[in-house]
Amino acid sequence: MASAELQGKYQKLAQEYSKLRAQNQVLKKGVVDEQANSAALKEQLKMKDQSLRKLQQEMDSLTFRNLQLAKRVELLQDELALSEPRGKKNKKSGESSSQLSQEQKSVFDEDLQKKIEENERLHIQFFEADEQHKHVEAELRSRLATLEMETAQHQAVVDGLTRKYMETIEKLQNDKAKLEVKSQTLEKEAKECRLRTEECQLQLKNLHEDLSSRLEESLSIISEKVPFNDTKYSRYNALNVPVHNRRHQLKMRDIAGQALAFVQDLVKGLLNFHTYTEQRIQIFPVDSAIDTISPLNQKFSQYLHENASYVRPLEEGMLHLFESITEDTVTVLETTVKLKTFSEHLTSYICFLRKILPYQLKSLEEECEASLCTSALRARNLELSQDMKKMTAVFEKLQTYIGLLALPSTEPDGLLRTNYSSVLTNVGAALHGFHDVMKDISKHYSQKATIEHELPTATQKLITTNDCILSSVVALTNGAGKIASFFSNNVDYFIASLSYGPKTASGFISPLSAECMLQYKKKAAAYMKALRKPLLESVPYEEALANRRVLLSSTESREGLAQQVQQSLEKISKLEQEKEHWMLEAQLAKIKLEKENQRTADKLKSTSSGQAVGVAQEGTAVVTAAGQEDTSAKAVLEPVHSTSLIGILTRTSDSEAPDVDSREDLIRNHYMARIVELTSQLQLADSKSVHFYAECRALSRRLALAEKSKEALAEEMKVASQNISRLQDELTTTKRSYEDQLSMMSDHLCSMNETLSKQREEIDTLKMSSKGNSKKNKSR
């Protein structure tokens, strides 16, 4: 895709470059022509300058000659003035000289006449040359101005082309940068796509293997376990209970609830419209409180008074339809029996509209025939009569399509399944038509109410009634728009949900089979409910998976538990033996204690003076005997200051003589506490040893599992390294291919840049030449 886009862009750039090149050739030709014209004009200007210079030289020579002749004339006049007085004085003597002077004068006169004529001719030639020079100069100036304008235009064209070329160059450079960035992104996307394709291929392979295994398993199960096919005949297949789709049922119930709300609003609007229309008839054009209304309006009012008996059943039928759609049913056209009831109620309302339509039209005609009815009000009444006809026609059309939708639940061949979608589409179109009609009624009635409010006979009761009718019409318009948009939004879902039912294409064949299917569905639900029993509590699956490794290495294994039970039995037997031993020891100690008590009692009776000392000595003897049996005899011969019970007994026996019973209790309690302490220490040591042994076994098992996982990971590492090497090889090959493509693209862009630079240089030369020509023309 990227290479195709690049080739397309390069083709476009090549076309633009060829266009620019052709324009450049045309501009070159125009500049060359202008240069040739300017050279020809230069030559003409040089020739005119030469002729002008010649004429100026001739003019200068003529002026000099004229000055010479004028001076000569002045000299001759002076000589003539001097010769006249001399002639008067010497008339007599100079007759011969006068004749000579007359001859010279005649000669001079002829010469002067010739010079005057020549001067006049030269003046005429100079004037003609001056006029011709001025004319040529004016022509040359006008031509120079036109040439300057043309050069300015050509310069503007050249500047525009230069600007365009610069913009194209910048655009090409930006495109080049964008293409480079895009090529990099495409490289990244290609890498990602390659990885994704590999993953998808692996997933596809795994899925293919899984599905093939499942297919084989299913085919084997079907061939071995399924004795017959119960979907062969469509008549019996229609009795099969379909899969329960709770989401579909909840969606249908929600849609039915919304439709019920819209129908309730529509019923409320229709009730208000008919009721307020009845009130309007009673007060306009004739108020019933003042005068008797016409029999036509009386009949019309009587019929309108019965509107609730026709409108209310619409709401009740929709409510029954909503209640029939529950979570446990299957909602299709064959099972919605209550839709027929709603269609019948709508048919009765259509009959009511047909019954009141002629009276409504006649009532509007009667209003038009009233004396205060203007032409605008008459036009609004005619529009309203047309709108009422359209409203009745729209309701009839809607009732026809709803009746068709109700046929599958009552008559099996009433409507083919192929026509369901077209009927639903027509229902939506009829609802939109109803909305358009209600908008027209609202518009025309608002205009009618505005005109009637301006009438001089308009009462406050009429104004209020018109406002109420207008509000009910607006409510009907809004309700019609909502229900039309609601049906249009859900018509696709209605069409798609018609296939909900048995999996065969025929679906529910008849309402009777649909009813039987619903009964079977109830029985199946009751049977499944009877079979359902509360499950016992168990460990959650996720928790069991998380504790799997712990369970594998725990001490609760069978062998560990058997060993622990054996060890605990051995300990119990040892403890029972020790218990018997200590019980015997306790009996012996009790016998000895009784004998010692008897001896002490006898001694107390025999001795009276040294009773306290003797008792103390005997107590110490008894304590030393008990200490020899337990530990040693040195602890009681001398009083030892210790914190044990023996030390306390020894100190108390030295200080004062307690009772014999309290001393025996202290000794017995001391030995019992000692025995309990030793047994607890022994049990603690045994439990620690068992715990350490179990931990050692668990660690050994974990070590074995870790070694196994290490081997598996090593194998996975080998496979991953092989995959990485393969991917690196593919990456190098793709990278080389992309580098080759990028090098080709860069070469192409370099060639384009070179051509653009050459073109820019040509434009610069053209600009310089045009600037030089313009400067020369300005200087001229």
Automatic annotation (TrEMBL):
Q: InterPro entries annotated for this entry?
A: PPP1R21, PPP1R21_C, PPP1R21_N, PPP1R21_six_helix
For this UniProt record, the keywords arranged alphabetically read as follows:
Coiled coil, Endosome, RNA-binding
Question: What is this protein identified as?
Answer: Protein phosphatase 1 regulatory subunit 21
**PANTHER family in alphabetical order:** PROTEIN PHOSPHATASE 1 REGULATORY SUBUNIT 21 (PTHR21448:SF0), SMOOTH MUSCLE MYOSIN HEAVY CHAIN-RELATED (PTHR21448)
Recorded GO CC terms: early endosome membrane
Which molecular-function annotations from GO does this UniProt entry contain?
mRNA binding; protein-macromolecule adaptor activity
Say yes or no: keyword Coiled coil present: yes
Region ranges (Disordered):
84-104, 755-780
| GO process annotations (BP) | regulation of intracellular mRNA localization
Q: Where is the composition biased (Low complexity)?
A: 95-104
Query: Which domain of life does the UniProt lineage start with?
Result: Eukaryota
Q: Give the gene symbol.
A: PPP1R21
Residue ranges occupied by any Protein phosphatase 1 regulatory subunit 21 N-terminal domain in the UniProt entry: 11-112
Q: Name one Pfam family in it.
A: PPP1R21_helical
Q: Which residues form a coiled coil?
A: 3-72, 162-196, 558-592, 696-737
State its location(s).
Early endosome
Q: Does the keyword RNA-binding apply?
A: yes
